[in-house]
Every structure is written in structure tokens, then in C-alpha cells.
Specification:
Largest sheet: 8 strands, mixed
Bound molecules: flavin-adenine dinucleotide, NADP nicotinamide-adenine-dinucleotide phosphate
Structural class: alpha/beta
Family: Belongs to the FAD-binding monooxygenase family.
Helix content: 25-40%
Shape: globular
CATH class of the largest domain: Alpha Beta
Protein name: NAD(P)/FAD-dependent oxidoreductase
Number of strands: 20
Distance between the termini: 15 Å
Cofactor: FAD
Keywords: FAD, Flavoprotein, Monooxygenase, NADP, Oxidoreductase
Pfam families: Pyr_redox_3
Number of domains: 2
CATH superfamily of the largest domain: FAD/NAD(P)-binding domain
Low-confidence stretches: none
């Protein structure tokens, strides 16, 4: 029997293994992939990179990693992040406790023995006192339900499970379906290679420029790194950002020139902090429309054909309520002769045929189909596992009407089970994920130590604490514009998924305080019992 079984070997699983082992616990990590990396193992599509500054995305817990690793660009490529996570695994000799190529099919709680039995798809069983699901927030790809898609005769590539050997699109007629973050990153790179590229866009997204550039040794200076990390810890989104007096004001209260100057500054700075520009951008429709119009004007300037520009301008949902995309040369791709935008709002896909995609009664011939169609986010990887808690309660039953957690970390009825940063009810996906992952992992490992030190064998969130947290998450969400978009944050991209705004939008510092207070009060809201 292990002390802890961890499922997943991405950022979360790797850090968990390191911390739990440091505490002297026996740990086994089970990972479906053949290597470490999680997101960065699977999503190898052209153009894939982080959209958070790499120096902030890398782990902060290890002076040794700081000393031995250098990021080369502001936004590291997928290859570089995967190299980094391999380097983390090497540095801490993590692979010896990871079983690769092993997908977990189920986990069942034995109340009498106070232990979990974890079952793999291969039929192996492991027992453990604790299980931590480090299964990822965006790790369960979602197939689009487009008529005829299975009949397509050429190769179909998912951005989320891209072939390791890469794909050469030279001379090919390519179709990309999907214009979320993955599509926005892949399209310019595919456009450079393909003979012809059709981009099938159902919803135009709000996109801000990356402002990518090479990094120098100064970017890795220990004091600079420490300052950035401290700034990230204080920011609701976990991003290093020097708030000015202007950023604490409401956009609607400022004269237009002053407001536009700040939008312009943030636009030129590049990246996600665009939404930190003013206090009211994500809560007041009027302010949100101001930033939407600013972005629309940028699109009009970047895209030469006014009709194409108009189709690329998002409408019908607030800026930021769907995850903001960060681009390198996205709009410029539509100025190329070999790229054509197909606006599915005007002409929906009728069907995929063996030789192409039919829209408006015309078949567009296609050699290669690329699906950048997203994920069953947050809950998908968890509900794919047959998790059974007390009295055989299935997680899918407990979450029938939407996910319910305490702090995004635990679920009532499922003792000694934790989820990392992917748990609905946590701020993870609204933040620089590394910041949330480290905080979650630290909290979980401290919690396991506390249970052991108290001579307890079992910890479970109470229904009451969970109900209060779920209500709090909903209340805070409702004060913002987030619930108004059909985003993966509310599960709208998966037919039949209950519509619930899943992440906690109270901000990383507030959430961290909340978690720390729960721990300081002897794990308030949890029920601890001897084994
Ligand atoms: P993951 O990296 O998703 O790892 C989960 C692992 O669990 C996977 O390896 C998976 O194979 C394994 N697993 C799942 N289910 C099972 C099972 N049943 N059995 C065995 N193994 C299982 N976040 C940011 O903050 N900044 C970014 O720039 C950013 N860019 C992203 C780009 C892409 C393309 C995607 C998809 C996500 C991005 N994210 C980003 C979110 C990203 O997922 C997190 O930053 C982070 O990598 C999550 O790490 P994780 O270890 O929690 O999960
Ligand atoms: P996504 O944001 O969910 O985008 C999926 C796209 O596919 C949307 O444009 C969607 O259109 C479209 N789509 C889905 N089904 C379709 C259908 N049947 N017909 C036509 N279009 C369809 O997924 P993603 O781009 O993979 O990104 C998911 C998340 O991963 C991001 O939000 C981000 O958090 C993370 N990510 C980050 C980066 C990065 O920059 N570092 C890169 C990739 C991913 P609708 O909007 O109309 O549904």
C-alpha cells in the first residue's frame, strides 16, 4: 500500500511527488502518457506556447531550478516547456516513482479500511491512504459533433493530441476548425506552410498581442525573479503586474484620452494583463464595451479586407468572459493570399465529406483537417474516472447538477481525495496556473501531514462547508460578467453539461488567505476521524 497515489505527471503531479516524497511518504504517480509534461506532452501543435511569461510560469519553489534553467523567449514554446519539465524530473529524480503509459480507470473508497483502491485500464490495482487527482483542467479533449466528421478520408489532427513526429503541411489544402487559444496559435504557423488554409470560425475571440521577445540573463536575476513572483502572489490573476493608480480606477470614470492611453500602454506591453487595466473591466458592461471597441479598432487596422476584419471582430459576449487569447501574427495571417476565413455565423458547416467540408451548398476541398475544438474542461478528466466514495457514491452522481467542491480541493462524500488546481471552485484556470498549482500542492501536502500528525486516518469535507463554498463561488461569479458568455468556464462547449460558472473569481490572494485560514483553524469545514 502507498501513502499517496497521484494521477497525472504534469506541473501538478511533478511538484506533488517532490513535496510528498520530501515528507517521507511513499508515493506512486500514474500517468497515461509515455512521459512527463501533461499539457506540454500532448499539445504539440505548431505555434503552441505559454501565454503567461515563461519566467513566471516556471516553478518558484526551487533555487536549484532557478540556477540551472534559462528561458529563451518571453513566451516559451511547447518544446521548451516540455524540456523544462523533463529537467525538473531529472533534477529531482522523479521518474523512478512514476508509472507511464498507465491510464487510471477507477478509484474506490473502502470506508472500513480507510483507503482507496485505484484501478488502471490495464486491470492493475493499487491501494493508498490518499489519492490526489492531478489530472489537469484542460486534458480531456472534446470531439466536435459535426455531421460526417468520421467520414473524412484524409488525416484528422487534434491540436490536443498532436503527432510527436510533427506534420508537414507543405503543398497541402488544410482546414482548421476552432479559433480559441489553440487555433489562434496554430493558424499563423500552418498558414506559413500550407498551399491553402481555410479557417472555420464559429465564434470570433478577443485576442491581445503577445509582445514576444528574447530574454536575457537579466530576466533570470534572482532579485528580479523574486520581485516578479511576489507581484504575482499579490495579483488576482497570479500575474506579475505593477498596479498604478490608474489601474485601480474605473474605466467609466476617466476621460476618454486617459482611458485610451492606458489601453494602449497595456496593448503594447502585451499579454493577459490587458484585463487588469481598470477595476471595472470585468464587472461593468459599459467598461467592458470600451475595451471591446478598443480591440475591435485594432483588428480593423491589422486586417486589410474590411469584410474579413468585420467577421473577426467578436460580438455577443464580454471581453475576458471567454478566456482571452494571446497572438503572434494571427490577424496578419488573414492578409495572406493562401488563407481564407469561413464565418460559420453566416454559413454554418453542413457536413464534412470524405473530400472536404460543405458550407452554403459548396464543398471546400481539404487534404488535412485540424481540430482545435477544445476540451471538456475542469470536470472532464475527473468524471472520466469511475470515482466512488462513501457508500459507493459515484462522483458523476454527486455532480449530476454541476460540480460541488470545498475550496476546489475536496468533495464531501469522498474522504482522503484531493484535486489540484483543476478542481471547480478554485481560481486555478483564471490564474497563472503555476501559482495556483504550487499553492494547491503546498496546501494538500500540509493537510496530509496534519492528518498524520494528529494520528487521524481520514479527512472529509463536510456537506455544510461545501454548500457554503459552492454558494460563495456562485455569488462572487455573479458579480462579474463571466457567466454571460458561452464559455468552457460554464461548460457551455459540452452538450448536456450543467451550466455552472466553475472557477472561483475571488482572486488568487483572497483564495490563498481563505485556504490558509481553514488550515490554521485545524482544517475548519473538514471532519477528521481516526483510521
Ligand atoms: P496537465 O498538464 O493537464 O497534466 C495532467 C496529466 O494527467 C496529463 O499528463 C494526463 O495525461 C494525466 N491524466 C489525466 N487523466 C488521467 C488518467 N485517468 N489516468 C492517468 N493519467 C491521467 N496555463 C497557464 O497558466 N499558462 C499558459 O500559458 C497555459 N497554456 C496552455 C496551453 C494549452 C495548449 C493548454 C491545453 C493549457 C494551457 N494552460 C496554461 C493550462 C495548463 O493546463 C496548466 O498551466 C498546467 O500545465 C496544468 O498542469 P497539470 O499538471 O495540473 O495538468
Ligand atoms: P477553446 O477555447 O474551447 O476553443 C475551441 C474552438 O473550437 C472555439 O473556437 C469553438 O467555437 C470551436 N468549436 C468547437 N466545436 C465546434 C464545432 N462543432 N464547430 C465549429 N467550431 C467549433 O479550446 P482551445 O483553443 O483548445 O483552448 C482551451 C483553453 O486552453 C484556452 O482557453 C486556454 O486556457 C488554454 N490554452 C492556452 C494556450 C496559450 O495561449 N498558452 C493555448 C491553447 C490553449 P465556439 O467558441 O463557438 O464554441
Amino acid at each position: 500500500m502507498f501513502d499517496v497515489v497521484v494521477v497525472g505527471a504534469g506541473f501538478s503531479g511533478l511538484y506533488l511527488l517532490h513535496r510528498l516524497r520530501e515528507q517521507g511518504l511513499s508515493v506512486r504517480v500514474l500517468e497515461a502518457a509515455d512521459g512527463v509534461g501533461g499539457t506540454w506532452y500532448w499539445n504539440r501543435y505548431p505555434g503552441a506556447r505559454c501565454d503567461v511569461d515563461a519566467v513566471e510560469y516556471g516553478f518558484s519553489f526551487s533555487p536549484e531550478l532557478d540556477r540551472t534553467w534559462r528561458w529563451d523567449e518571453r513566451y516559451a514554446t511547447q518544446e521548451r516547456i516540455l524540456e523544462y519539465l523533463d529537467h525538473v524530473a531529472d533534477t529531482y529524480d522523479l521518474r523512478r516513482d512514476i508509472t507511464f503509459g498507465t491510464r487510471v480507470a477507477g478509484a474506490t473508497w473502502d470506508e472500513g479500511a480507510a483507503r482507496w483502491t485505484v484501478r488502471t485500464e490495464g486491470g492493475d490495482e493499487l491501494t493508498a491512504r490518499f489519492v490526489v487527482m492531478a489530472t489537469g483542467c484542460l486534458s480531456k479533449p472534446k470531439k466536435p459533433d459535426i455531421p460526417g466528421i468520421e467520414s473524412f478520408a484524409g488525416p484528422t489532427y487534434f491540436t490536443s493530441t498532436w503527432p510527436h513526429e510533427g506534420v508537414d503541411f507543405t503543398g497541402r489544402r488544410v482546414a482548421v476548425i476552432g479559433t480559441g487559444s489553440s487555433g489562434v496559435q496554430a493558424i499563423p504557423r500552418i498558414a506559413e506552410q500550407a498551399a491553402r488554409l481555410h479557417v472555420f470560425q464559429r465564434t470570433a475571440n478577443f485576442i491581445v498581442p503577445a509582445g514576444n521577445h528574447e530574454l536575457t540573463e537579466d530576466d533570470h536575476d534572482p532579485d528580479t525573479l523574486a520581485a516578479r513572483r511576489a507581484s504575482g502572489m499579490a495579483c488576482p490573476l497570479g500575474l506579475a503586474f505593477e498596479f498604478t493608480e490608474t489601474n485601480l480606477k474605473n474605466a467609466v470614470d476617466l476621460p476618454e484620452a486617459e482611458r485610451t492611453a492606458e489601453f494602449e500602454r497595456l496593448w503594447n506591453r502585451g499579454g493577459l494583463p490587458m484585463m487588469l487595466g481598470f477595476a471595472d473591466l470585468l464587472v461593468d458592461e459599459r467598461a467592458n464595451r470600451m475595451v471591446a471597441e478598443f480591440i475591435a479598432e485594432k483588428i480593423r487596422r491589422r486586417v486589410h479586407d474590411p469584410e474579413v476584419a468585420a467577421a473577426l471582430i467578436p460580438s455577443g459576449f464580454p471581453v475576458g468572459a471567454k478566456r482571452l487569447c494571446v497572438d503572434i501574427d494571427y490577424y496578419e495571417a488573414f492578409n495572406r493570399d493562401n488563407v481564407k476565413l469561413v464565418d460559420l455565423r453566416a454559413t454554418p458547416i453542413e457536413r464534412v465529406t470524405p473530400a472536404g467540408i460543405q458550407v452554403g451548398g459548396t464543398e471546400i476541398p481539404v487534404d488535412d483537417l485540424v481540430l482545435a475544438t477544445g476540451f471538456d474542461a475542469l470536470t472532464g478528466a475527473l468524471t472520466a474516472i469511475d470515482i466512488r466514495g462513501k457508500d459507493g457514491l459515484r462522483l458523476t452522481e454527486a455532480w449530476e447538477h454541476g460540480p460541488r467542491t470545498y475550496l476546489g480541493l475536496c468533495v464531501a462524500g469522498f474522504p482522503n481525495l484531493f484535486a489540484v488546481a483543476a478542481g471547480p471552485g478554485s481560481p486555478g484556470v483564471l490564474s497563472n496556473m503555476r501559482v495556483s498549482i504550487e499553492q494547491h500542492v503546498d496546501w494538500i501536502t500540509d493537510c496530509v501531514r496534519y492528518v498524520d500528525e494528529q494520528g487521524m486516518g481520514r479527512i472529509e469535507a463536510t456537506e455544510q462547508a461545501q454548500d457554503q463554498w459552492v454558494e460563495h463561488v456562485r455569488e462572487v461569479g455573479d458579480t462579474t460578467l463571466f457567466p454571460r458568455a458561452n464559455s468552457w468556464y460554464v461548460g457551455a462547449n459540452v452538450p448536456g453539461k450543467p451550466r455552472v460558472f466553475m472557477p472561483y473569481i475571488g482572486g488568487v490572494p483572497v483564495y490563498r488567505e481563505e485556504c490558509a485560514e481553514v488550515a490554521a483553524k485545524g482544517y475548519a469545514g473538514f471532519h477528521l476521524t481516526p483510521a
